[in-house]
Design a protein that fits this description.
GO terms for molecular function: cellulase activity. The protein is of the alpha+beta class. The chain has helices spanning about 5-20, 150-160, 225-240, 245-250, 260-275, 320-335, 340-360, 385-395, 400-410, 425-435, 445-465, 480-500, 500-515, 570-575, 590-595, 600-610, and strands at about 60-65, 70, 75-80, 90, 100-105, 105-110, 115-120, 130-135, 140, 145, 195-200, 210, 225, 290, 290-295, 310-315, 315-320. The chain has a domain at about 180-210 and about 220-440: Glycosyltransferase (Alpha/alpha barrel).
């Protein structure tokens, strides 16, 4: 395996670009050495390897998508300049030849970054090639490609992220070079693993459960049903929107080559875990799902999962977790039915059981205070989870009871796209599937139109932003803002699938520019993609910043992104008073701006798969 062509070409030419912007830069391949704990070195020619981001990259006011643009798509850049007059620009190919030219559009002060801005639109140029640069008023951008396949590799890498996140199994270095490690949280690990996990003392449960498997949630080693639910749902929705494309997308995972599409094989790893979190029959809360499993106390950074010494604990069941299980299992039942009928039937039984249990216990809430050793994932409003679960069960079964639950929910006619959806706000997941997956809903046309209306609002938001992001919250940027942007783009992409109108396709492509470098920090938030790319995401085992013998996160890992609240001490001290779009730092200790999580990568996987299909 080798580095994608776009990375090879840029490594060879970055020094020349640095001269153009008057700042020197050196790019060297990352080669990690091995250590005894089971995280061996990364081969520089592996699919996971990527060029190191230099400590001092070329600084430039010309902000572009550092990965590339589709030749037949929109191509815009943002320039930081306080000039009130249009600025001359030139697009240059890899030989330095000017292939297009024009003038910028002054846009004034951008509120989210506090920067004076211009916008350059070079969409009319339809050529293709590698290592283009955009020069504006004598200042050059970082290099980028014009390539119809610009997102193909990203769609694979964003999905292949999940394999090294697996719990309870050794990660195979032949499949994930540089990321091999011993199995974490198995019976032979120091804390006894996840095969017989007791409940948190005082919760009224006297049994243990085998909750092995699943994905580690984020930078910690906890596993959370509510975050696992939305993550696996987006992977399955990725498959449902384009089964043929998903079947052709070869991922790096042990099951590759089997009869089940790779993305569903990865989804099954999490679905199996979610069903294990269900309270057994005969217990007082039978059918409910435990909210989460994680360590009794926080582990230090770095900590190999196989070396974790903390006692694992099951936390109390919650209505939100139970409905996440019901929704994800119901969706899984229909997507797995063509490949494994017995497994599909098992999932449907689990979904029905969970939904009935949630109806019997509709107000068991996970508190925000339960945050020792793992994230709280508190949620005291579960109307959206009821709506989502009923929608998935109705789509899968067509049964009247679930259809009635959908149409009688206050959320069925509410504007569920008024704010981005995430693990705490899941009604949009049900709405999107009701709009796109065949079902007998009586007012389906109105549902489909609501998606288009939501997409139109996001396009309007994009048009008002100098950096073109479909995100403009009034109170500052939220934790995981990059994922919220991606989920808004998923709504826009769904509008394209429903209508075929090019403006929605172009909107998704333009929105990706922000995540890959066209932003106030000139920062790509995806590891391995772009000359200035995030690489120090908060993680206990991808911890190269703390221990040079450990790897950075794999290629295709999304950083959470700007977060105005700055909850961690590192960001709080360094970025106090920051403008929303600038509240980010690529530091492993900045967990509030730079963590990695499965749900953020699920949104990246969904959108990058959509744009990879636009060729």
């Amino acid at each position: 395996m080798h580095l994608p062509a776009f990375m090879q070409s840029r490594r060879a030419r970055l020094a020349a670009v640095a001269v153009a912007v008057a700042v020197p830069a050196v790019v060297v391949p990352v080669v990690f050495s091995s250590r005894e704990s089971g995280l061996p070195g990364t081969s520089a020619d592996s699919a996971y390897a990527f060029p190191a981001t230099p400590d001092h990259i070329p600084d430039t006011p010309v902000r572009v998508n550092q990965v590339g643009y589709l030749p037949d798509g929109p191509k815009r850049a943002t320039v930081v300049s306080d000039s009130s007059r249009p600025l001359p620009w030139q697009l240059k190919d890899d030989a330095g030849k000017v292939v297009a030219a024009g003038e910028s559009e002054p846009r004034g002060l951008d509120a989210s970054s506090g920067q004076p801005t211009h916008v350059v639109d070079f969409s009319a140029y339809r050529g293709s090639g590698h290592t283009y640069t955009l020069e504006v008023d004598g200042r050059s951008s970082l290099p980028f490609d014009l390539d119809p396949k610009a997102y193909r590799q990203l769609s694979v890498d964003a999905l292949s992220f999940f394999y090294p996140q697996r719990s309870g199994v050794a990660i195979d270095g032949a499949i994930a070079p540089g990321y091999a490690r011993k199995a974490g949280h198995t019976a032979d690990t120091p804390n006894g693993g996840d095969s017989k996990v007791p409940c948190v003392p005082g919760t009224g449960c006297n049994y243990t459960l085998d909750v092995t498997g699943g994905w580690y949630d984020a930078g910690d080693q906890g596993k959370y049903v509510v975050n696992g639910g939305i993550s696996v749902a987006q992977l399955m929705s990725l498959y449902e929107r384009s089964p043929k494309a998903s079947q052709a997308r070869a991922l790096r995972l042990p099951e590759h080559g089997g009869t089940t599409p790779d993305v569903l094989a990865e989804a099954r790893w999490e679905l199996d875990f979610l069903t294990k979190m269900q309270v057994p029959a005969g217990e007082p809360l039978a059918g409910m799902a435990h909210h989460k499993v994680h360590d009794a106390g926080w582990t230090a950074l770095p900590t190999d999962p196989a070396a974790d010494t903390q006692q694992r604990q099951l936390h109390a069941p919650s209505t939100a977790a139970t409905l996440n299980l019901a929704a994800a299992a119901a969706q899984g039942a229909r997507v797995f039915e063509p490949y494994d009928k017995a497994y599909a039937a098992k999932l449907l039984t689990a979904a029905r059981t969970a939904y009935a249990a949630a109806l019997a216990h509709p107000a068991m809430y996970a508190p925000d205070s339960d945050s020792t050793g793992g994230g709280a994932y508190g949620d005291t409003d579960v109307g959206d989870e009821f709506y989502w679960a009923a929608a998935e069960l109705f789509i899968t079964t067509g049964e009247k009871q679930y259809g009635t639950a959908v149409t009688s929910s206050p959320l069925h006619r509410a504007d569920v796209f008024a704010a981005p959806f995430d693990w705490r706000a899941t009604a949009a997941l049900g709405r999107l599937d009701l709009a796109t997956v065949d079902n007998r809903l009586g007012d389906r046309e109105r549902v489909r139109q609501s998606v288009v209306d939501g997409a139109d609002r996001y396009l309007k938001t994009m048009a008002g932003q100098s950096y073109g992001q479909p995100y403009a919250p009034s109170g500052g940027y939220d934790w995981g803002s990059n994922s919220q942007i991606l989920n808004n783009l998923a709504v826009v992409a769904t509008a394209f699938d429903l209508t075929g109108k090019p403006k929605y396709r172009d909107g998704v492509l333009s929105g990706m520019d922000y995540l890959l470098g066209r932003n106030g920090l000139n920062q790509s938030y995806v590891t391995g993609y772009g000359e200035k790319a995030s690489k120090n995401q908060h993680s206990r085992w991808y911890a190269h910043q703390l221990d040079p013998k450990l790897p950075n996160p794999p290629r295709g890992t999304l950083a959470g992104g700007p977060n105005s609240q700055l909850q961690d001490e590192v960001a709080g001290n360094a970025l106090r008073g920051c403008k929303p779009q600038l509240c980010y730092m690529d530091d492993i200790m900045s967990w509030s701006t730079n963590e990695l999580t499965i749900n953020w990568n699920a949104s990246l996987a969904w959108v990058s798969s959509f744009v990879a299909d636009q060729t």
